[in-house]
Amino acid sequence: MPATTRLHMMSRSAILTRLARQISQLTVNRNSVLTCSYNTDARHSITKRSDAETIGSFGDRFSNQSLSSFAQKPSGGECKPQVGENVSRKDKISFLVNTLLDLKDSKEAVYGALDAWVAWERTFPIGPLKQVLLKLEKEQQWHRVVQVIKWILSKGQGNTMGTYEQLIKALDMDHRANEAHEFWKKKIGSDLHSVPWRLCSLMISVYYRNHMLEDLTKLFKGLEAFDRKPPDKSIVQKVADTYEVLGSLDEKDRLLEKYKDLFTETWDGNPKGLRWSRSQRKEKQAQQN
């Protein structure tokens, strides 16, 4: 019977037994591993999220390529070290990045790999995972970035505005603006009085680039309702352009008048960075003449 067929026939409990046997061969103290509360949770999540092929394949790679250097020889009656204790953070991060880049485009495969990677950590490794995300961003692997962040959030970790900003950016770069919009509504948009302007500006840019004009104006009006002044003229310009496209010229005029102090004067008297319409330019020239 082919190896892949046998692997598919393995039950989830048999897979976990196989992983435990591999670890025991590396002289790892299984009891010390199981006392870690997160380890227990991570193993449990593997049985729910990963298919047999993914866990088996990643488990083999993780054991043969990485864990062989993790274990130490026992000394006397002392407890053996935790798996991965003597491997540098840099090597662990590189291993996970390379693994994620090699995986097929499957949510189950990615989640299974992440579950296996964190299964031997004493605490949830949010710091190293942030570095993994930065490396994936550098490779412009936006789809993988989305998958990793969603997995982190599914563990109840990383619920910060920084993580939300990173996810919205990745969704936009992965051409999933509608999904970014849905995430914004669900997790962020109901609390506009405290959302950082940096994140609001990002969402306005997402709407602007993807021609989601009604959503853009709704977001900006929501911010204005809390009397929040935009910190940058580029935000005002995007909103003004949107009003013009929608035919709301009165709203555009109101907006530019309200935030005119954001635009500094230049040598010819025109506000810096402000794009005038043709009729506005003619009117300005007539006034100067």
UniProtKB/TrEMBL annotation:
<dbReference type="InterPro" id="IPR011990">
    <property type="entry name" value="TPR-like_helical_dom_sf"/>
</dbReference>
<feature type="compositionally biased region" description="Basic and acidic residues">
    <location>
        <begin position="280"/>
        <end position="289"/>
    </location>
</feature>
<protein>
    <recommendedName>
        <fullName>Pentatricopeptide repeat-containing protein</fullName>
    </recommendedName>
</protein>
<feature type="region of interest" description="Disordered">
    <location>
        <begin position="267"/>
        <end position="289"/>
    </location>
</feature>
